[in-house]
Amino acid sequence: MPDVDYRQAVAAGSVAAVVGCGAMGRGIAQLLAQAELRVCLFDTQPGAAEAAKSTIATDLDKLVARGKLEASAAAALVGRLSPVRELADLAKATFVIEAVIEDLEVKRKLFADIESQVAHDAILATNTSSLSVTALAAACSRPERVVGYHFFNPAPVMKVVEVIAALRTDARVCDALTSLTQRFGHTAVRALDTPGFIVNHAGRGYGTEGLRILAEGVCEPATLDAVLRDACGFKLGPCELLDLTGLDVSHPVMESIYHQYFEEPRFRPQVLTRRMLEGGLLGRKRSAGFYRYVDGQQQRPPAPTAPGVAPPRVWIDTNHATAAAVRAVLAPGVDVDTGAKPAPGSLIVALPVGADTTSAIAARDFDAQRTVGFDSVFPGRKVQCLFANPGLAPEWREPARAAFAAPGVDVHLVRDSTGLIGQRVIAHIVNIACAMAEQRVATPSDIDRAVQLGLGYPHGPLTWGDTTGASTIRRILDGLLAATGDARYRASTWLTRRATLGLSLTHGD
After folding, report:
1. Which of 51, 313, 387, 474 to pair with 489, CA 20 to 30 A apart?
2. Cβ-Cβ contacts under 8 Å for 187 (sequence gap 6 or more)
3. How far apart are CA 72 and CA 67, in angstroms?
4. Does the pLDDT of residue 339 top 80, yes or no?
5. pTM
6. CB under 8 Å to 142, separation ≥6 — which residues?
7. Backbone angles phi, psi at 489, to 5 degrees
């Protein structure tokens, strides 16, 4: 391998090129110019490169007007952007990144064409989000200089960039791009060339498990979203997120990653979103998805009405250490039955972990007619969710809601669910991240950083597993596996070993 100093390829003052001047290409070009590279803009569509420079200038002017950027800095940045009309005009570029259509053959031909124009020590990068970097590099005579450099949209705002090493990528290329990323103020995370890289790989847990809950008929989309936002701290529920992204984007990614991993059950999509896609229910962009949209505004169904009955006396499963915490979320003035066993006439609140209300009833010989389940691992604050077993008597449904109806709290009563809602979603997310660490897709710290910055989760998934308790996550997964027989819920060995030894899930080998 030639002794090449790839750091010089992206040093301040060097010539970079962005091929493809859509929204993503424009954002990348802005960041490279911010890092003091001179940036050539190229697009096969006539006028697109010039339009990209103009759009970037307009965006920067807005930052100047808001006091976020000095006018002189904006002018200098725009001055580093140079639209060009031919690939041959990229001959002096020492770093080229493409941001064109996600088509393997289109990109492979483009890489071969670019390689014929630039110097032997130029870095060639792809912004692909779903294609194999190794397959792209195979089109080049020097695959060791080809690398994945995956930004998220909008690139100037989303502060994480994935640096992906293909099978033959020189590690010094990844080092150079990691340093470059730091210069324009983003966080670089390093990943192997695997389907979905880090963020799109780790993100499979949230949406697919949420969709499975819907497929099981546990609750409606608005309830699922409300519980996961409030009890777990997600910014958007899975249905809101899918509507925002658009099922024409999200569902093909779910299917692609599932098939690229040879039908790995952890990534299995659901029929529901395939049918919605076929029916044109794409989400916000079509005014209908999981929700309706009027003038771009989501139309949520009404919140549950306040219970019209007095709360009953409540007995909380004394078999759980978290029983005391549940008392804190009861409605004011609720009479708590403190007996060793529930007295006749008391509402029974079971606290399943990795199980459902029905199995808790069987294990503890509770009266099914007056027993509901409650998630003590992920309790809500302004939203409370109770789980009705099939034998819950109709006359106990409203009293059960009344017991948790504190002022300003919405109380949902949904169907029984193994792992309830929060437990199964978080356990699935954590388990996928553990499998990624086990497969060395990325380091534990990079997995956590990438997910927090790229997906906006309240915690990195491995740290979230530690906070919840690795043994608790394992218990939830084991319960789901036993109840369903679905290999989707098998615990990764990374999780199992660390839970067994009492180690952090971020602890490396």
Report:
1. 387
2. 159, 160, 161, 181, 449, 453
3. 12
4. yes
5. 0.95
6. 115, 120
7. -100, 10
How far apart are alpha carbons 377 and 370 in whole angstroms?
22
* Residue entry with tokens 């080092």: 175
As given in the structure block, the two tokens for residue 184 are: 């324009």
Single-letter amino acid, residue 163: V
Confidence of residue 429 (pLDDT cuts 50, 70, 90): very high
- Exposure of 37 by Cβ count < 10 A (0-12 exposed, 13-18 middle, 19+ buried)? buried
Give the span between the Cα atoms of 96 and 84, in whole angstroms.
13
- Here the tokens at position 318 are 């004394």
For 485-492, the CB contacts below 8 A with 24+ separation are 486/265, 487/265, 488/265, 488/266, 488/268, 488/428, 489/428, 489/431, 491/431, 491/434, 492/431, 492/434, 492/435, 492/438
Quote the Cα angle for 97-101-103, to 5°: 105
Q: Sorting pLDDT into bands at 50, 70 and 90, what band is 2?
A: low
The DSSP output letter for 501 is H
The CA angle 210-447-142, to the nearest 5 degrees, is 115
Residues 387-427 pLDDT 10s: 999 999 999 999 999 999 999 999 999 999 999 999 999 99
d(CA 83, CA 100): 16
The two structure tokens encoding residue 59: 């965006």
Write the DSSP symbol of residue 193: S
Which residue in the block uniquely carries the two structure tokens 């640096």? 163
Is the confidence at residue 325, as pLDDT, over 90?
A: no
C-alpha 301, offset from chain centre: 25
Work out the number of other CB atoms within 10 angstroms of the CB of residue 325.
14
CB distance 415 to 218 below 8 Å: yes
